[in-house]
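Q: I have 297 residues here and want to know how they pack in 3D. Can you give me a structure?
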Amino acid sequence: MDAARLTPPRRLTVPIQNRWGAGDMAVLDFGDANRPVDLIFVHANGFNARTYRTLLAPLASSMRILAPDLRGHGATTLPTATVGRRGWHDHRDDLTALLDTFPGPPVVMAGHSMGGTASLLAAAERPERVSRLVLFDPVIWRGPTALLFRTPVLRRLAERIPIVRGARRRRPGFDSREAALAAYRGRGAFKGWPDPVLIDYLAEGLVPSSGDGLVLACAPDWEASNYLAQGHDPWKAMRTYRGPTRILKAETGSITQVPEKPRGLEHVAVETAPGTGHLFPMVRADIVRDALFDAVV
């Protein structure tokens, strides 16, 4: 366990070419490179794979884990066209390409928030490559909320949606990572984050600007586009992918509108992580780590 904590993950570059454009997906590779991949873990909107390094590294003593940077995040260089974008089919197809790049036994796919939903969509496309899913507060709306997110009206009202407005108003750059750390520590969404997690987020979440200083690797407009592009159908994906699916949702502020016993989805188990909010993987790594270990081992 201590060796896993001290050994940094390898950095891989996976070429991706699909209908959404060509580029390279940056991937962190934890564990023994000589064994097949056991787990793929996908980050939330606006973050990056390295944000979850301290969560995943202790598991690397018993499994091999791939953690990709999604399109528009971290060190991934895939194009990010927002005009006419309607859903997360680009993230889905990027993840299926990653699955195809690493043949072997079926893997566990897991993810947080958008990363959980994108993993679900990818599993529905490649069910033979995914043994089970573990999703941490995935974005899954139901009823009127789901219908609203899929209507053109939503885009006309985009600037009135708090989470979209907040993304677009996000401070785009800093003079240094130290300045960003001072600005974020203990505030807003970062309240309660351990310093190592916040430092890891900033290590890949800020990139050199064309001038002086650093800018967000995930551009505010792309983050906002991910909130708005809800034309994909996670419910259809849950009906298509019939492997064991475990959903852990936050106790407060959850964006997972899946009941504990969803009708017709006996393979889907839903539970609430007590005392948690939407970003609980950053502050309660123990809950996430236990769930991943149970799924793989």
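Q: Anything worth noting?
A: The chain has a mean pLDDT of 92. The domain at 2-152+232-296 is CATH 3.40.50.1820 (Rossmann fold).
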